[in-house]
Amino acid sequence: MRILTFNSKGGCGKSLLAREVIAAPTAKQTVIIEIDTLNKTQLTYKKDFKAVIELDKVNIQDLLIHLNEHDNCVVDVGADNLTATLNTLVKYQLFDDIDLVVIPLSSGRTDCENALKTYATIKEFTDKIIFAFSRFNRDEKLEDQYQVFFNNIQKAGIKSIENNYITVVDSDIFLDAQNQKELVVNLAREVNYKKQALEAKKAGDLDKFHQLMKQELNKRAAQILVKDCIMPSHKKIMSFK
Fold first, then answer.
1. Which end of the chain is more exposed for a tag (fewer CB within 10 A), N or C?
2. Domain span at 7
3. In this structure, how many other beta carbons lie within 10 angstroms of the beta carbon of residue 169?
4. What is the pLDDT of residues 153-175, one digit of tens each?
5. Is position 190 within any domain?
6. What is the CATH number of the domain that holds 163?
7. pTM for the full model?
């Protein structure tokens, strides 16, 4: 699938969503196309994906080539290129080459309002749109966490989002993975750190023991995140065809 993550506001979780949820489970078969002049966030993970392609304001139209060259790609638009990207998508009719637009948002008023504005803007060009509710708390109802969004959906021309959304939980593991410049799915790989830790303890190296046990704990936390959040959301996105 060819998927665009887009919200007219920066800092709403586009890059994390594109990388960790949409692309990472099929990393070796997926190309990330990053339109970001300043940060180039995804370039750090080039080793993990089939490719990471960097575009900027002067060559956004090259999306036409990349979207038709690669069967599986995710387009991540940086905050400094949002307007230019949207204008180019419309001008070059690139929404015709995109299978799905995912609009991420957190529970803040500005995020909710901008997600709805984004939907209202692009619905003229495609009806293949879903929302991704980031920093989701499983202990609260979705409508209670994103009240501004649900109180205003009708103003954006949405009768109901029905099942056209995913949730991405708030987890320190995402931050840990980012700090280590690793994907969460990589942190979740089955490595027996506990066995190594016990061997270190037996050898009298308690510092190494604690370090390895911490890695074991982080691995298990990553596995839970992959099982309960990343894979269900990824599979749901891939089912929208």
1. C
2. 2-171
3. 17
4. 988 888 888 889 999 998 999 99
5. no
6. 3.40.50.300
7. 0.92
